[in-house]
Amino acid sequence: MLILADTVSLKQDEENFMLFDNLNGGIYKLNELSYKILSLCDGKNTDEDILLNITESFEVTITEAEKDFEGLVRILLDKKYIYDNDNEKGGELYEKDL
Amino acid sequence: MKKIYNAPLFLEIPAEEFYALITE
């Protein structure tokens, strides 16, 4: 499951949605959807939970929502703004097995 | 009532633009 890195902060102020990279000072403008996705990355919601939340809140097909969700997640994982804690646990187990 | 869908935005902005945004 996806979890937000503790080096980033999310802020919402009226119509503005922002992400702050507290490590290198980067500032990112989000919209309601990307803010919602990041807010749901709490280590408890599965990808399916997040997608269901999106399709229930917005006029969008599951196919389009999934494509956009995966695109955003790929960027965020690459920047280490979110982590997949399933993979991390897997890594720890793997190291113990060696 | 569902909201109109816009693809997720993730756009890095320069600090100056951010400060302009909050001061306005």
Protein architecture, described:
The complex is a heterodimer of chains A (98) and B (24). Helix content of chain A is 51%, strand content 22%. Chain A is an alpha+beta fold and 98 residues long. Chain A has one domain: Alpha-Beta Complex (Outer Surface Protein A, domain 3). In chain A, strand 2 and strand 3 (16-21) form a beta hairpin. In chain A, helix 2 (47-57) crosses helix 3 (62-78). Chain A is globular, with a radius of gyration of 15 Å. The two termini of chain A are 25 Å apart. Chain B is α+β, with helices and mostly antiparallel strands and 24 residues long. Chain B is 38% helix and 17% strand. Chain B contains 1 helix and 1 strand, in the order E-H. Chain B has one helix spanning 15-23, and one strand at residues 10-13. The longest helix of chain B has 9 residues, at 15-23. The N and C termini of chain B lie far apart (31 Å). The model of chain B has no long low-confidence stretch (mean pLDDT 86). Chain A binds chain B through residues 13, 16, 18-19, 25-34, 37, 56-60, 64-65, 68-69, 71-72, 75-76, and chain B through 2-15, 18, 21-22. Strand 4 of chain A pairs antiparallel with strand 1 of chain B.
